[in-house]
Design a protein that fits this description.
extended, transmembrane helix, Alpha-Beta Plaits, single chain, monoatomic cation transmembrane transporter activity, 267 residues, 2 domains, RCK_C, alpha+beta, RCK_C_sf, transmembrane, 64% helix, four-stranded antiparallel sheet
Length: 267
């Protein structure tokens, strides 16, 4: 029984640890899904090699979080296996084994519910955020809210090819702002990261460009090569963005007019 309870506590603590680590990774700028994947990967020692893994190794805070997860994960997995063996091997009676199995099944069911529960997730995230602010120097920001990553807006990273439309052109020549796309930064191998580059900055082959804008516009940019179609596509996206801006301005004017009419009625 003690071994079964111990196993339940270890799994619960493990889930809590990976949740804390994932939340901390999110606050360093990593996306929520990537943070969860990397936290679980590091804790279990699976060691998947992805682009996010490379970005973690190059970030001192993320690297420290992952390093601690790997150390804790090794100890946790060994302890969990020991408790599991003690639960089913040492008991001499069938009743004791069934009782241990019942505790494990019920405990795992409770943990599964807690992991899937949005209410528990919100409460736990709020608590972790408070503790991170209080006991660490980690800057806690909701990047998804700050960058308005909804309504089809997204952040994406693209690798520039030799035959890509962006290659060997300055940001001023690309004129992506007219399409509603902003280049947040450019990672150039051997030269480091260029944050918020100016209009005279030239995009080179193999640059990794971080983009912010509408998903449709970013996808269109990915598909462009150095041909006549690329310029037509650019013009089309510029026209659509201009039309969207007009619609937004019209909607804003209607809201202002409605509020003014309401104020007049109240007077």
């Amino acid at each position: 029984m003690i071994a079964a309870v111990t196993l339940f506590l270890i799994v619960s603590i493990s889930a809590l640890i990976t949740k804390i680590a994932a939340t901390a990774l999110v606050h360093t700028g990593l996306s929520s899904e990537s943070a969860k994947f990397q936290a679980r990967s590091a804790y279990t020692g699976t060691g998947f090699s992805t682009v996010e893994s490379e970005s973690i190794m190059g970030h001192p805070i993320r690297r420290k979080i992952i390093y601690q997860l790997m150390l804790i994960g090794n100890a946790g997995i060994v302890t969990a296996m020991s408790s599991l063996i003690l639960t089913f091997v040492l008991p001499e009676t069938l009743a004791s084994r069934l009782y241990g199995l019942l505790i494990i099944v019920a405990g795992m069911g409770l943990i599964f519910w807690a992991i899937r529960s949005k209410m528990v997730d919100r409460a736990l995230s709020k608590l972790i955020n408070t503790l991170l602010r209080k006991y660490t120097n980690l800057e806690v920001h909701d990047f998804a809210a700050v960058l308005h990553l909804k309504d089809d807006y997204k952040i994406s990273e693209a690798r520039v090819d030799h035959d890509g439309w962006m290659c060997h052109r300055t940001l001023e020549e690309l004129d992506l702002r007219q399409e509603g796309i902003t280049i947040l930064g450019v990672d150039r191998k051997g030269h480091g990261y260029f944050g918020s580059p100016s209009g005279s900055f030239k995009i080179l082959p193999h640059d990794r460009v971080t983009l912010y804008g509408k998903a449709e516009g970013i996808q269109s940019l990915y598909n462009r090569k150095k041909d006549h179609y690329a310029f037509l596509e650019h013009d089309r996206m510029v026209a659509e963005e201009a039309e969207r801006q007009i619609e937004e301005d019209r909607g804003l004017s209607e809201i202002v007019e409605t509020k003014e009419n309401q104020n007049k009625r109240s007077i």
